């Protein structure tokens, strides 16, 4: 049917607002000890890329409780980037006075054929993800972090969601949507189902449906976040979602741009045993004096330093003795010069990672619900 009314459904929804609150001090999550510049720097440190920085600064200045969103397909065991890096980033955002909405994208996993499209299994994996984030130390006290299931939220507000999805689909040509399939771990050359072509329109709609001010996802999700900003231009919407894209941690083997759940050797999983972590790091690609493309150094930069604010290497006195690096730059200089050898770096990295992961292992060994979830998730076959 031809429709002359061009009013987009999203305009009926609450806008992405940066209108100053009349009483910001009344909000308990508004930080009292951090000034605007400190908040901006802390939030900005989460992203490898920010579109746009001035918009982010303006948002933090005028809105006491900005809403950040990230989403995950429950698609298998959680690797350390999803678990620890996400926890580090969420805790930075809540410290800076943001509210974080984590979208447990169960319907999206089904559309993308994860867990063979079995929604019951997908929901089990989603429960497992939440257990890990709680165990590793995500700051979920109060209402700082909200876990939302896509199926529940969409069903409860279908009258808002589906007109928005349809409007986004109507305003974009198929080639533009196809450029977004990277968000599902697909390429434009793959033979896609109709569901997978619909997926980017839904993910774009999520941003407005969740009233997100900041899209805090990985660099691999950048294209659909840009699509959301383009949609704002289409509907003449002034306040666009800010894109804060975090770094993608590579796989542990040479040339692996990202971790793969289907290749256990490519990543550390959040409930890996201590011996497994040691073995995986021992076998990881870590060429002497080479920094570029070195996954062990990336783990230290994006996990160990943000967590401990230092990196401790224990060596025999004849090999240089114990050394504590206070900055990543100091470590890189030593590594490039040959002053720090992979044979000393790897055990120190494994020890640091095991220290971070021990509370998770403890939780999944002692808590009956978590133990059962892990057993079931490990028994599922990972599908693409």
UniProtKB/TrEMBL annotation:
Say if the entry is tagged with keyword Iron-sulfur: no
> Keywords assigned by UniProt?
Aminoacyl-tRNA synthetase, ATP-binding, Cytoplasm, Ligase, Nucleotide-binding, Protein biosynthesis
Superkingdom of origin organism: Eukaryota
Provide an example Pfam family for this protein. tRNA-synt_1b
State which Enzyme Commission number(s) the record gives. Answer: 6.1.1.1
InterPro entries attached here? aa-tRNA-synth_Ic (IPR002305), Rossmann-like_a/b/a_fold (IPR014729), Tyr-tRNA-ligase_arc/euk-type (IPR023617), Tyr-tRNA_synthase (IPR050489)
Q: What is this protein called?
A: tyrosine--tRNA ligase
Q: Which organism is it from?
A: Salix koriyanagi
């Amino acid at each position: 049917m031809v429709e002359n009314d061009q009013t987009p459904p999203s305009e009926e929804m609450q806008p992405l607002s940066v209108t100053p609150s009349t009483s910001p001090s009344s909000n308990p999550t508004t930080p009292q000890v951090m000034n605007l510049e400190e908040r901006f720097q802390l939030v900005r440190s989460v992203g490898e890329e920010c579109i746009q920085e001035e918009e982010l600064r303006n948002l933090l200045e005028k809105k006491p409780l900005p809403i950040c969103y990230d989403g995950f397909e429950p698609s298998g065991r959680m690797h350390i980037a999803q678990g620890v890096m996400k926890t580090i980033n969420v805790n930075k955002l809540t410290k800076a006075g943001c509210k974080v909405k984590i979208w447990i994208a169960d319907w999206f996993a089904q559309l993308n054929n994860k867990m063979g499209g079995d929604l019951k299994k997908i929901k089990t994996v989603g429960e497992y993800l939440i257990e890990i984030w709680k165990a590793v130390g995500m700051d979920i006290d109060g209402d700082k972090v909200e876990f939302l299931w896509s199926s529940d939220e969409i069903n409860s507000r279908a009258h808002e969601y589906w007109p928005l999805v349809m409007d986004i689909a109507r305003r974009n040509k198929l080639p533009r949507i196809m450029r977004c399939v990277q968000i599902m771990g697909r390429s434009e050359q793959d033979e896609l189902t109709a569901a997978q072509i619909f997926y980017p329109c839904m993910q774009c709609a999520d941003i407005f449906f969740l009233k997100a001010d900041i899209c805090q996802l990985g660099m691999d999700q950048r294209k659909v976040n840009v699509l959301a900003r383009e949609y704002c231009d289409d509907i003449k919407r002034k306040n666009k979602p800010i894109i804060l894209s975090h770094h993608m941690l590579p796989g542990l083997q040479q040339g692996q741009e990202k971790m793969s759940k289907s290749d256990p050797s490519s990543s550390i999983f959040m409930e890996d045993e201590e011996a497994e972590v040691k073995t995986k790091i021992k076998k990881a690609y870590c060429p002497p004096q080479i920094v570029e493309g070195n996954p062990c150094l990336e783990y230290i930069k994006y996990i160990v330093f943000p967590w401990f604010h230092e990196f401790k290497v224990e060596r025999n006195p004849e090999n240089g003795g114990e050394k504590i690096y206070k900055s990543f730059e100091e470590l890189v200089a030593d590594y490039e010069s040959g002053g720090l050898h992979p044979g000393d770096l790897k055990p120190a990295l494994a020890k640091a990672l095991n220290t971070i992961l021990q509370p998770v292992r403890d939780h999944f060994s002692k808590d009956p619900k978590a133990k059962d979830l892990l057993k079931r998730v490990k028994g599922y076959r990972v599908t693409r």
